[in-house]
Design a protein that fits this description.
Layout lengths: L16 E4 L2 H4 L13 H10 L8 E3 L5 H4 L5 H12 L4 H7 L14 H16 L4 E5 L20 H11 L5 E5 L6 H6 L6 E8 L17 E6 L5 H19 L3 E5 L19 H10 L4 E5 L6 H15 L10 H8 L14 H4 L12 H11 L2 E2 L4 E2 L1
Parallel strand pairs: 1-2, 1-3, 3-8, 4-5, 4-7, 5-6, 7-8
Antiparallel strand pairs: 9-10
Helix pairs in contact: 2-11, 2-12, 6-7, 9-10, 9-14, 10-11
């Protein structure tokens, strides 16, 4: 299965909703931080340039209120994040809350930007309460902890989306994380909750150095730590042999897919070798397993690669045909990117001309087959099936 699967729901009367905000255009992490690149605004501009985002399908992401954030986050931490933006923090508070420390800089919108991502994911959960599909590329900040920032993530919007669904009476929620980094914050928030299934397919041995036990015995948790060099054929093997059967057996009432695309071969922050073709394929097949569907963003540190991947995800959700060559308006959006990374010194023409990468074929290594075998031997007591 190397093509792009087109879901039936994309062309139906209830078309998917896309959530974004102009705050992501104006805000930067500052300095040489890996996230000081255009991401959400760039992907949105590209989708619009493709003619795929009519006004009726767009929503502005709101800033989550402190009360909404406190559904998961500690009020003292929420207050500290607000003070970091408005009046500053003492060194003691920086150390306590990991704000301004460890890759989590203090910048001009350090409260409002993550609160908008959180508000967008909460809105997404509200919009799909009775069914439907929402894509919020600002979401996916899966490392955020209840009382501190972690891994560039100040708030944990996937957790807040799950809790919003639970508060609306939606049970049996599947969360599938495709980021190159382990979705530790979401996994730990719902560990041993039989109504929440968390699956993370990530690079083994990479920060945050968790999720490396494929045979995790905790209820409702599946980790598949894949080796460096992970290719499209291996990804599709893992998807078909482990991830899809597990989600289908769980029979989720809602599914959330975290689409961090730092596993792309063009991304500088992982050792995986994926093309952008695998992400819309995975999203299409996963979201077909539930009536309520939320698709989030996540990692991604090459703006050319990220924008094209997230645009392709939205295109397949909305039932669009993938162009062989990008129209002039879309190429102009990509041509305006400024990225001062060594990988951008001699960029390939496909970054500007095409939406989809060439497939990244390769052998399915024994180590990957072993991961699937171990995952398949695990009994998930929460839904009483053997994968």
């Amino acid at each position: 299965m190397t093509g792009i699967f087109k879901p039936e729901f994309g062309a139906g009367p209830a078309r998917p909703i896309y959530i974004a905000s102009e705050i992501f255009r104006k805000s930067r992490y500052g300095g040489k931080h890996p996230l000081s690149i255009p991401r959400v605004s760039l992907a949105t501009d590209l989708v619009r340039a493709l003619g795929w985002l009519p006004p009726a399908q767009y929503r502005d992401g709101p800033i989550a209120t402190p009360a909404q954030l406190a559904r998961f986050h500690d009020p003292d931490y929420i207050d500290a994040l607000w003070r970091a933006e408005t009046v500053g923090l003492s060194d003691a508070d920086k150390d306590l809350f990991n704000i301004g420390r460890g890759g989590n800089p203090i910048y001009g919108e350090v409260y409002r930007r993550p609160a908008t991502a959180a508000g967008s994911s909460i809105l997404a959960a509200e919009l799909v309460r009775d069914g439907g599909t929402v894509h919020s590329p600002a979401g996916g900040t899966h490392h955020g902890r209840r009382d501190r920032a972690s891994g560039f993530c100040y708030l944990n919007d996937p957790v807040l989306a799950i809790l919003t669904l639970m508060d609306a009476g939606v049970s049996r929620i599947a969360y599938v994380d495709l980021d190159a980094h382990h979705g530790d914050g979401v996994e730990d928030a719902f560990a041993d909750n039989p109504d929440i299934l968390t699956i993370s397919v990530h690079e083994a041995g990479r920060w945050p150095h968790s999720g490396d036990c494929v045979g995790d015995t905790r209820t409702g948790i599946m980790n598949i730590p894949v080796p460096a060099g992970f290719n499209d054929d291996e990804f599709l093997f893992v998807l078909e042999a482990a991830v899809l059967p597990t989600v289908e057996a769980f029979s989720p009432e809602a599914i959330i897919v975290q689409c961090g695309v730092d596993g792309l071969a063009d991304d500088p922050m992982s050792g995986l070798m994926l093309s952008n073709r695998v992400f819309p394929t995975a999203v299409s097949e996963l979201t077909a397993l539930s009536p309520r569907r939320i698709i989030l963003g996540g990692g991604g540190y090459n703006p050319y690669a990220l924008a094209r991947a997230w645009a392709a995800i939205w295109g397949v959700l909305d039932g669009q045909d993938m162009p062989d060559r990008l129209p002039e308006a879309a190429r102009s959006v990509l041509a305006e990117i400024e990225w001062r990374h060594s990988r951008a010194q001699n960029p390939p023409s496909r970054w500007f001309d095409t939406l989809l990468d060439p497939p990244s074929h390769g052998p399915i290594r024994d180590s990957v087959r072993d991961l699937v075998r171990i995952a398949g031997s695990k009994t998930f007591e929460s839904h009483a099936v053997r994968i």
